[in-house]
TrEMBL record:
UniProt xrefs under InterPro entries: F11R, Ig-like_dom, Ig-like_dom_sf, Ig-like_fold, Ig_sub, Ig_sub2
UniProt membrane topology term: Single-pass type I membrane protein
A Pfam entry, by short name: Ig_3
Listed name of the protein: Junctional adhesion molecule A
PROSITE patterns for the chain: IG_LIKE (PS50835)
Length: 276
């Protein structure tokens, strides 16, 4: 959920129990500094002033009615949640007063989504997350294992005393540090913000498993065997002369010439030769 924004509106807001003094001697009041309204319902933000002659109201996208006692929404949406400031001015802004009202539009939470691993290694840190985006105000988060509510302090419950975990009720994070064999089970998350009914996610099973040392050793052995076979294959290829044959086949031919030796004119034999 986004945090409420600050909306500065030049408004008129009814009779008050809270007030804010204004510069120049005027005062601005409100009967409620926080207004909570269900979504799609009308809402009124009150503002009352004294010491001003004629304050000026401003429009709000045609959905708001301004009066001498405040402003009224025909129908509010979750986007209207925020802090509204009533400002009354005159004399070119030399005299003014203001008061803020927090409008909180109430929206029940939707079904939360969870991220739960199917398995975790005993002795390691494992994180489960839960999130919900629509509720206003932001919901509180709870976790269940096998349908049983998990307390924030596991040591205070006989069912969870052998577990070691922390729950963040504001962010929905469940952290096992470390995971134990007792933590195997079906986990679900529930959200509730005081509006409508609580909503719970589907249950997903988490298996707490021992570290597979045998599998790791087997993988190492297989890797070493494959490496040994590779080395043997290279050695065998060298011993059979495969690499040498390749080298000989790629050697370029050489041409050798010999100069003729001095002979008599009567010698009719070949006087020069070459070898390829």
């Amino acid at each position: 959920m986004k945090r409420p924004g600050q909306r500065h509106l030049l408004l008129l807001f009814t009779a008050a129990t809270l007030c804010c003094p204004a510069l120049g001697g005027g005062s601005v009041y409100t009967s409620e500094k926080e207004v909570k309204v269900d979504e799609n319902q009308p809402a009124t933000l009150s503002c009352y002033y004294s010491g001003f002659s004629s304050p000026r109201p401003a429009s709000y996208q045609g959905r708001v009615v301004f009066s001498q006692t405040g402003i009224s929404f025909h129908s509010v949406t979750r986007k209207d949640t925020g802090i509204y400031t009533c400002m009354v001015t005159e004399n070119g802004g030399e005299d003014y007063g203001e008061i803020s009202v927090h409008l909180l539009v109430l929206v029940p939470p939707s079904k939360p989504s969870v991220n739960i691993p199917s398995s975790g290694t005993i002795g390691h840190r494992v994180v489960l997350t839960c999130s919900e985006e629509n509720g206003s105000p932001p919901p509180q988060y709870q976790w269940f294992r096998d349908g049983v509510l998990m307390p924030e302090d596991p040591k205070k419950s006989r069912v969870f005393t052998n577990s070691s975990y922390t729950i963040n009720s504001k962010t929905g994070e469940l952290v096992f540090n470390p995971l134990s064999a007792y933590d195997t089970g079906e986990y679900s998350c529930q959200v509730y913000n005081g509006v409508g009914t609580a909503m719970r996610s589907e249950a997903i099973r988490l298996e707490a498993a021992e570290l597979n040392v045998g599998g790791i050793v087997a993988a190492v052995i297989v890797t070493l065997i494959l490496l040994g076979l590779l080395v043997f294959g290279v050695w065998f290829a060298y011993s059979q002369g495969y690499f040498n044959r390749t080298s000989k086949g790629s050697t370029s031919k050489k041409v050798i010439y010999s100069q003729p030796s001095a002979r008599s004119d009567g010698d009719f034999r070949q006087t020069s030769s070459f070898l390829v």
